[in-house]
Design a protein that fits this description.
Layout lengths: L4 H9 L4 E5 L4 E5 L2 E7 L4 E7 H10 L4 E7 L2 E7 L5 H15 L2 H7 L14
Helix pairs in contact: 1-3
């Protein structure tokens, strides 16, 4: 089942110390003042921080789902089309973006588990 804007926010809301910062057409996501993602509700897309190699792999393997947003140092930001991604994969990508940015102690305290939509989604 593809994801929606509400699904994206459900996943983000399960991660500790995330601060949304509203822009004119998007919301930036930060953890302790450092950015790890963006959300554009009108296009149902999200921009997520990833390792550069992961960005390349995602965009190369599935250009219908992912596109390159930008590169900053060792990180590559990838745009995700929410309606074309499964919940488990989106959860992993959101978690990875947060994990790459959050302080080590916060990641350790979180327990290393990605968020999940399974509890909040209706069964098929």
């Amino acid at each position: 089942m593809p994801c929606s804007n509400a699904d994206f926010w459900d996943l983000v809301d399960q991660l500790p110390e995330v601060t949304p910062v509203e822009g004119s057409t998007y919301t930036a996501l930060k953890v302790r003042g450092k950015g790890f993602g963006y959300h554009w509700p009108l296009t149902a897309t999200a921009g997520l921080k990833q390792e550069r190699q992961e960005q390349i792999a995602l965009v190369t393997e599935r250009p219908d789902v992912f596109e390159t947003q930008f590169v900053a140092g060792q990180f590559g930001w990838v745009v995700v089309r929410l309606e074309r991604i499964e919940p488990e994969e989106l959860a992993e990508l959101v978690f990875e973006a947060w994990r790459l940015t959050a302080p080590v102690r916060l990641v350790s305290a979180q327990g290393g588990r990605p968020p999940s939509l399974s509890a909040s989604r209706p069964a098929d």
